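INTERNAL AUDIT FORM
Audit reference: QA-55
Scope: verify that the stored structure record matches its stored sequence.
Auditor: D.O.
Record contents follow.
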Amino acid sequence: MSLVQTHHRRAAPACLVALLASIGVLASAGCFSSSTPQDWGALLNPKGDKDEKKKGTPKLDVVGQSLGNSQEVSLAPGELVSRVADLVAQNRLTSAARCVQRHPDAVLEWLRSDGATKNRAVGELVAAVHDRQCLAPDAVQTWTQLTATRFADPAKFQAYGEARKRFKSALAQGQVEHALSQNLAGLAEQLQSPLLQIDALQLEGTVQLLNERPDVAAATLEQAIAIAARVSAYQSTYLLLFLSDAQRRAGDGELAAQTWDRAVALAGRTLIAEHPVFEPVLWERLGYMRPIERAWPLDVVHQLHRSDYLPGLDLPDASVVVTGDQPVNPALAETVVWNAIGGWYLNRGHAQAALVSFKRAESAATTARAQQWLRLRQARALLQLEQTGAATAILVSLAGDKTSSAAPPAFAMLGSLRLKNGQLAQGLGLLKKATEKEGADWPGRAEAEADLGVAYLMNGDKVAGLRHLRSAQQRYTTEGDFEGLALALENEAAFLENSDGSRDAPAVRQRLADLERGR
């Protein structure tokens, strides 16, 4: 049986998980930093000369920009907002905004629950960033507006907030009827808040579906969809997915498939918005709930591929009108979809989920080149999981294949790993080998350049080190990679502050500060 044909067998448990997660029973999210504390002062002055002026100990990642150094961390919505608050306190506003953008599902659950925070500025920032990313420009209500009203008159929302807590508590205990008796939809309607009406109707509709009442659930979800159409394509996509499941359970397979088509089309729109939504949980559910007879639309496959480019794929031209039942090869589409999901999970720090997604993509890949790059990405996920042995085995195999386009990044990752383990000479040699072809470009080249620059600096070659570090910064700027650029600038500034180039450090610090302020 093909990979495509296995989806329907897994649909029922996946839908159950999706429904529970959608109402917060299984909700979790992660936000992570790849920074590892290091001290350039100690590296440059290992004997600790007493006469040298003491300098601060910077927190930075001196090696391994291409590896990622964090443990996988799952955060509840409130903890995610606490992470945002920490970034705001450090005046890292761009980083805070990007953390919100990376976790729209957790942020939405936090905003729906009550958006409670003692720091009004943080609550307003979270609401504003989510509005910009996920709400229509002409939305009938925004989270910014609702947040302001909540701060101004918290008592007004007390009844709804308490009923929502009782609803979820009852559901967690399996008391479905008691949950539905809270009349969330009625309370939300009294508040005249479209956003809370969507929330209440989605909660009630998903619970009705869990209670094997698909017809009633479909009617409730359609009410929510009618409101969400004037608010958010992102929220509408989730609602359409649940409606599709309700229609399938009610016995109307064709209508369910048509609703899935609508959901995919809307989700595709969120990928090309001014502030795109790269949300792996949503696309994982779209994949699991795809009807057997439906293929991924070609334009959506292209959008996914552009969001997380995978070498070795030959996609049909999206501008050509394709006839027939299969607009794109099913295995090719699955490769693209699951590679994108894996990349987004990895960006969120969910390395285990990323690893599973990359393996699914590899199992569908039809070219050796694509399979090699997917194994490279599996190695990256394994390194985040601290499974160094398994990752090294993959990287050595790829690096040893002279015909593989994944060999240079494999050398780079091995070099970074050697540096992290204190093997400077080996690490520098491997990174030089990875980047020896001038002008050669491949995904991850900027990270390899940055690590090579740091390796040279650690080896005492300031000129070569700064040259490569600044070359990486130019690449990051061109690619729009904020995190990579910020880390490379932090490394340069910290090095300069602890060397004879300290007079140049303030300019680099200023550039980093401007970057965090969005300038």
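Auditor finding: record pair retrieved intact. Confidence is low (pLDDT under 50) at residues 1-21, 25-38, 46-73.
Action required: none
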